[in-house]
Amino acid sequence: MKNIAVFTSGGDAPGMNACIRAVVRGALHHNVNVFGIYRGYNGMINGDIHPLTSQSVSNIIQRAGTILKSARSAEFRTKEGRKKAYEQLRAHGIEGLVAIGGNGTFTGAQIFYEEYGIPTVGAPGTIDNDLYGTDFTIGFDTAVNTALNAIDKIRDTADSHDRVFFIEVMGRNSGYIALRSAIGGGAEMAIIPEKPNSLDEIIEKLKTGWGRAKRSYIVVVAEGQQPGNATEIAQKVKKEIPDLDVRVSTLGHIQRGGSPSAVDRVIASRIGLAAVEALLSGKSGIMVGIVNGRIKYTPFKETFKQKNEQIAEMIRLVEVLSK
Ligand code: F6P
Fold this sequence. Notes:
Elements: E1 3-8, H1 16-29, E2 33-37, H2 40-46, E3 49-52, H3 79-91, E4 96-101, H4 103-116, E5 120-124, H5 140-161, E6 164-169, H6 176-184, E7 189-191, H7 199-211, E8 217-222, H8 230-240, E9 246-250, H9 262-280, E10 286-291, E11 294-299, H10 300-303, H11 311-321
Helix pairs in contact: 1-9, 2-3, 5-6, 6-11
């Protein structure tokens, strides 16, 4: 393999740049040319493909976002789009790919690999931590720290006013950001998709918690869960317990920005280098992750499995420690 390419796709995540840097410098270390594909699969289709040098990735390890830009490509979901992408890769002499992204990125990579057989290795880049085959995805730790920072600040004002706050965090269909920031922020409750709560349960817990003379009460709500988003839940709660002084805060895209944490920079660097070396050693159709501190390869198809190992323990932590 003499020419490979790297791209980022889907929602950006802090640490993607550190991963790109590791892929580029890892490839150059092995005397392989490396190209950057800009704007994910859209760039592959449009031939937005350019050579990268060691200098191209200078001074980016500490920056969030992605220097290669990102996109969610509708065209790549079509056969015609993928054919165009294949032709562009051939025209540029690309023999292997490193795909940095999440679920959607790997779904695309798997289909493309089955159709055209271009060796592809994935790196888990998403704040959601929803990929099976790695303990942490790149960007998750920074997103949790950003959420925590916000929760700490909201706690200050919640405490002054004896208020209940529903704080909505990101995660698509995954409750990892919610659970981890709830534990770190000393929240009283976490509402997550993996273990849905009925409205009755939420109200019951709130009544008991408030009854214990709590002076502030933080509920971390994962987006994409039942019975509704943070605003909807808060409205229903207020209707049932009118005496509560309830507020809502939706953290949104701030969770995707900010300089990556040490954890994210280090795992991104390890995974990036391991991804290049896996590709050069003939591996394909796999994601490189880190499990129990060690590099692990997981077939793309398995990365879509739900990873629930730590969920029950984390829920218990929130429940026991908030009393
Ligand atoms: O997958 C990362 C993520 O930030 C999710 O947590 C969220 O649901 C989604 O992307 C938001 O996507 P967009 O930036 O396209 O609105």
